[in-house]
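Example record

The entry below shows one chain as it appears in the dataset: sequence first, then structure tokens.
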Amino acid sequence: MALIFCSHCGKQVSDKATTCPHCNAVLQAGQPQVQPQTAQQPFQQNTNATQQSVYVNVPGKQSNGIGTTGLVFAILGIFLGWIPILGWIPILGWIIWFFGALFSFIGLFKSPRGCAIAGFIISFIWVIVVVFVVGSIGAFSLFS
């Protein structure tokens, strides 16, 4: 058994086959054989049959914009929330932190979740640190 090339689709088939198993074209004895195609030379199909369009869904790189925004806002809020030199900056930092926590929470429900999880954890840790610092200041002010 020898392998020949289908004149319709260009794939290898048995010389004993009457139809191509790939494209179902009828193979005839003495039909010219098509050589395999290279990457530089795409296969040209010479047929009177109707052409079909094939759409391939190629998945693109996914991103979670709101989760990433939440992470960035949470980090900015931490740094801006502890600058007491300029009077309004800590308040701005807390507002940015709140939106970072909110966006991170919303981003947890979208895929991929990596940045949203990181932003949510950073926001949660910041709340714990603020509660600890405020509690410590309150405790020291009671005993002094």
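Notes for this example: The two ends are 99 Å apart (CA to CA). The chain has three helices and two strands.
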